[in-house]
Every structure is written in structure tokens, then in C-alpha cells.
Amino acid sequence: MAGRVTISDIAKAAGVSKTTISRYLNGNYGYMSAETRARIEEIIKKYNYVPNSIARTLKSKKSGMIGVIVNTLRYQVGAQTVTGINDICTKNGYGTIVHCTNGDRRAEETAVQLCLNQQVEGFIIIPCENSVAPYLEICERGIPVVICTRRLDDWPYGCVYVRHDELIQKMLLHLKEQGFEKVRFLLDVHDFHKEAMAGFFSAASAELFGMSREESIRWVGRESPAVCEALDALLHEYPGQSKAVMAVNTHTLFLTLRELERRRIRIPHELGVCGYDVIGWSELVYPGISAIRQPMDRMGIIAAEKMMESLREQRPTQGACALEGSLFFRNSTNLKAL
């Protein structure tokens, strides 16, 4: 065939109507024999036919795209969650449009509108704020939404999140059993999600170590000076008592370890160290860093599966799925072995 191959050309070569080809392209095989489906597939491959997606979108009002809006891609949790989402969407014939808001509410609003302009069929969102109002507005348009890695108060539709309260409680219990007497939580960004994590840590540290929230929580931002100041304060407080620090996310842990190395602080002799969302290198860094790990790929996979179910059944997304993370206890908190 000379020039651009059209749907009429494919229909003629396959010996079927354009309607049948259209049904095939839209995944509607209900009235199609296996032989006809195989013949159409063979002709499409033979002529390397690519559907005009813009025309199909305008006609069907279905873009075959899912909007994925994440609060950050700085860390592994965001990138690997998006990877899991994309894998499932691709397997089901959907593409993804990914926007990163960097935790900014206005950027999130812009990202939603851009996705709506592209006529996405659903949204998977790692939200910036705890309010469900903007996401309910999307659902009111008849577009399904899955909230991922967060659990929002009063959200009635599909969501996937991790039980941070249980993970933090188990890590602090481990520190208590190892003989640590004081603990401190270092967090980078003061947003609603990290605030919830701080609440879990504060409650557990009060129960296990008798510490107030002011004693156990430090907001250090993304720059090293604040991390240095937080560590300096902890190292000089509580003389004669064994202390440990938990650094949330890979970057904060890196800054913590770099500062302790600069000061020649022995781990765990002078300070116990554990991290959050640390993959791979934590077990290689001397003396081996104890860490909490979220099931990041799994979160994305389940979120996308909820979206696919919603689109197939033409209904809102359903169900909250709470995932359990993993804890790895290594020598950085192994005080009893000294």
C-alpha cells in the first residue's frame, strides 16, 4: 500500500468492515471470532498500521491515557511507585501522563487541568494536601481517582497506603530492646504526610522512651546545615545515655551519615542510626544500616489495578488497601553486640 495506511485499507485487506476494525482497535472482541481477530492482527502487523489516536480520542472521547500526579520524584518511593503504575497501565493498553508537583498545591491544580485537557480516563494521585475536596471534584466529572501512598480522611474511593504507624512502632521497639534510651526523628519536608509520620513517631517515643514531641522530632529540610545542627544538639543532649536517630528518606540519611563520618562518630557506639525508604546501598554502607522499606512497586501496581477495574466496570474506584512494609535490622542499631 502506498502512502499512509488507513483503517479502510486494513478493513479491505482483512476482508471485514471498518466497524469491525474499529471494534478490534478499541478492544471490543465480543462479536468477533478468534479467526477474524487473528487475521486483523496479522494485517495490522504486516502494514505496520498505527491508529490516528487524536481522531480516535475526538470521536470516542477516550484517550487511553491515565493521569499520574505525584508530589515528588526526588526519592525512590515516587519513582518506583510510578514504575509500578506504568507497568500495569501498559499491560492493559493504557499510556500514562506523569506530572510532578513538588508538593505545591497550585502545581497540582495545574497538573490536573492539563490532564483533563488531554481527556485522561482516570487519575492516580500522590496528593499534596489532606483535603479530599479537589479529588472529589474530579470524581464528580465521572472520572475515577485512586489516591496512592497516602490515606486521606473522609476519602470514600480507592486508595493504597502503607501502615507507617506499625513500621515506626516496630523500629522503635527494636531500638528499645537494643538498649537505646533516647531517639530522634529527622524529617525533611513539613507537609501533611510527614506530619502524620511525626505523630506516629512522637506517640511511640513517648510510650517507649518517655520523650515529648519537642524532644523527639526535628524538621531539617533538604539542606545539610539543619541536619548538622540537629545531630550536634542530640550528641550533646542526654549525657551518659545511649541515643539513636531515624532519618526519613534516602537523602536525609545520606546527609546524616556524611555528617557522622565527618565527625568520626562511631555507629552505633556513640549514636545508633536507622533510615526510611533506603534501598540497596544501606546494607553495603558500614556498619550496615537498619532501615524501614515501603513496598513501593507494589503500591503502584495495586493503585493501577484498582484503576483498571474501575474503567472495565465503569464505576468509581473502590476500597482502601493497607500494605505492610519491611524492617531490616543491621549493625547500625545492634547495640547489644558491643
Automatic annotation (TrEMBL):
The cross-references to Gene3D superfamilies, in alphabetical order and at most eight, read: 3.40.50.2300, lambda repressor-like DNA-binding domains (1.10.260.40)
Q: For the HTH cro/C1-type domain, which residue ranges apply?
A: 6-50
Please identify the protein, giving its name as recorded: LacI family DNA-binding transcriptional regulator
Q: Which PANTHER family match?
A: HTH-TYPE TRANSCRIPTIONAL REGULATOR GALS, LACI-RELATED TRANSCRIPTIONAL REPRESSOR
**Which molecular function term from Gene Ontology is one that the record holds?**
DNA binding
The organism's place on the tree of life at top rank: Bacteria
| Matches recorded under InterPro entries | Cro/C1-type_HTH, HTH_LacI, LacI/GalR-like_sensor, Lambda_DNA-bd_dom_sf, Peripla_BP_I
A single Pfam family, by name?
LacI
Source species, please? Yanshouia hominis
Keywords per UniProt? DNA-binding, Transcription, Transcription regulation
Domain named HTH lacI-type: which ranges? 5-60
